[in-house]
Amino acid sequence: MAEQHIIFFDIDGTLLNEEKEVPDSTKKAIADLKEAGHEVAIATGRAPFFFQSLREELGIDTYVCFNGQYVVYKGEVIHQNPLKSDLLEDLAKESLANEHPIVFMGEEEMKANVPDHDVVKESLASLKIDMSLEHDPTYNQGRDIFQSLLFCEEGEEKFYEEKYSAFNFVRWHPRSVDVVPAEGSKAVGIKKVTDLLDIPAENHVAFGDSLNDLEMLTEIPNSVAMGDGHPRAKQAAKYVTEAVNDDGILKGLQMLGLL
Asked: Which regions span the lipid bilayer (predicted)?
């Protein structure tokens, strides 16, 4: 058997195609990795309740979510890094004054600070998640919020970047950015997992495609960008594979000699 590796997969644009489906070749590749004794994990910007069915479908119980702010190893939470509550409260008031809605995301659910907003509905619909969004402008108060979604047009986040240096604003949709702690990233979350394991760094692998994957693709020794990914993701990665629907995961793993 080949030396044990740990492989982290982004979800949207990596495990899932544009139709939010896992290609059959990807399903088989992940099953084959596990059969060969490798550790398989997820590293995503999604909330844990956004991909429970995917974890169950693929049999994966180790994951980095909220872009690194919430980390689970074999079903046990090992790291939590919520947004600073006082600054988030201030940001929420500022964004409301600018007519930029926010969705607060906790461990188990999410709430919007405005009711029934078209831009919010449009952006979340692109994830194809079967989940209603309730209105609760005080949901951020008295509980941990690991990530927020700020809805603004491209370029408008610069105002918030200058005012809130404790947060990073990472665009995931033409009309929305993720708001995460400045010191947090998928790479930081991944290190919380790899520090627990006796797997040398040269056997760490990551697949991604987007702007929230840049730190992960830069820092993981064997990083692979999807062929239809963001140009900056491809620039950051050590390798580039084919697109999701062109057996990109399978071909990337074959490129690395893991399958």
From this structure: none
As annotated, the residues of the chain forming the CATH 3.30.1240.10 domain(s) are: 85-181
Give ranges for CATH 3.40.50.1000 in the chain: 6-80+184-255
Rounded CA gap, 129 and 109, in Å? 13
Is the per-residue pLDDT at 19 higher than 60? yes
Helix 24-35 to helix 248-255 angle, to the nearest 10 degrees?
A: 40
pLDDT digits (tens, 9 = 90+) for 169-217: 999 999 999 999 999 999 999 999 999 999 999 999 999 999 999 999 9
Q: Which class is 85-181 in CATH?
A: alpha beta
Q: What does the alpha-carbon distance between residue 126 and residue 151 come to, in Å, rounded to a whole number?
A: 14
DSSP letter for each residue of 141-184: TTS---EEEE---TTTHHHHHHH-TTEEEEEEETTEEEEEETT-
Q: Which amino acid makes up residue 195? A: D
Per-residue pLDDT band at 128 (split at 50, 70, 90): confident
Quick check: 62 and 41 in contact, CB under 8 A? yes
What are 239's two structure tokens?
């390798």
118 is catalytic: no
How would DSSP label each residue in 15-54? TB-TTS---HHHHHHHHHHHHTT-EEEEE-SS-GGGSHHH
Global pTM reads 0.92
